[in-house]
Design a protein that fits this description.
307 residues; alpha/beta; FAD/NAD(P)-binding domain; 2 domains; seven-stranded mixed beta sheet; five-stranded parallel beta sheet; 17 strands; 26% strand; elongated; binds NADPH dihydro-nicotinamide-adenine-dinucleotide phosphate
Amino acid sequence: MKEKSQQNTKVLIVGSGAAGLSAAIYTARAELEPVVLTGPTLGGQITLTADVENYPGVPDRISGTELIMRFVDQAEKFGAKIDYAAAESIDFSRRPFVVETDSKVYHAENLILATGSKAVALDVPGEKELTGAGVSYCATCDGAFFRGKKVAVVGGGTSAVEEAIFLTRFVEKVTIIHRRDQLRADAAAQKAAKSNPKIEFLWDTVVSEVIGEDFVEALRVKNVKSGAEKVIPFEGVFVFIGHRPVSNLYEGKLTLENGQIPVDLHMRTEVPGVYAAGETVDGEYRQLIVSAAQGAQAALTLIKDLA
Ligand code: NDP
C-alpha cells in the first residue's frame, strides 16, 4: 500500500459548503493559508438547489452551483487550497490535530468543522433498493429524468414544496404526500404550490413501502387517521423530510447534541483550536447566508484566538 504523504497546515477546514468556503475566504485573507477538504461534493448542499434568489446582493436567479463556485474562486483568489478529498478520521486528542484522507495525513494547528447535513430517509421497505432507480433526494439532480411522468414528493416543509414546484417543469403531475393536513412550508411556497395545476396533495398520509422491480412503480401509503392503506402508481418519489447533521467523524470524540456539535457564541467547540460552523452546528434555518455567516464567525474567532 502506498504510504500517505504528510502535510502541516495552520488551518484545515473540513467541508466545502457555504460555511467551509466562507471560513476559507476569511482565514485566507488573514494569510493563514487554509486548506479545504471538500468531502464528497465540492460546494455542499447548495449545489442541489436549482435557483437561489434569496442570497443578499445576488438579486437575479442563480443556480446553487454557480453561486458556490464564486465562493470557491474567491477563496482561491486569497490563497486557500482546495483538496478534493474527504476526511476519514480526525484525532482531536493531540495538537496539531491529525486528519487523514485516503492519501494524506494532515497535521493541523487549527480545525474548522463544517461537514453540513444530509437528507433524512423514509426508512421504509424498498427505499434503499430503489434509490437511484426512481427514489431521489434531489429534484435538481434527477428531475429531468422524470419528464412527462407522475411522481410523488414526500414532506410538507419548504424543501418539499419548493422541490415539487421545481419538478413541475418536467413532470406531468406531482403529488405531495404529507403526514398532516397542513403544510409546514413558508407562505410563499405554499401559495405557489396550491395555485400550480400540476400539483395535488395527499393529506394525512405516510408512505409505508416503495414498490418496484428495477424501478419505482408504486407507493404503498397509509392514511394516518383512518388507517386505510392503498397502493398508488408513481414513477418516481422525491423525499424531503428534513436533514441530519453529518457528524460520524466526531462520534465518541466530541460531545454531540442530537448529532450537532455544540459551540459557544463565537463558534468555538469544547476543544481549543477546533471551531465548527454551518449545519453541523445548527440546521434550523438551512440558509446559505446563515451557514456563510457562521463560517465567517468561526474564522474570525480563530484569527482572534491566534492573536
Ligand atoms: P422541515 O423540517 O421544515 O420539514 C420536514 C417535513 O417533513 C415536515 O413537513 C415534516 O412533517 C415531514 N416529516 C418529517 N419526518 C417525516 C417522516 N418520518 N415521515 C413523513 N414526513 C416527515 O425541513 P425542510 O428541509 O423542508 O426545511 C428545513 C429548514 O430549511 C426550514 O427552516 C425551511 O424554511 C428552510 N428552507 C428554506 C428554503 C429557502 O429559503 N428557499 C428552502 C428549503 C428549506 P411535519 O410538518 O408534520 O413535522
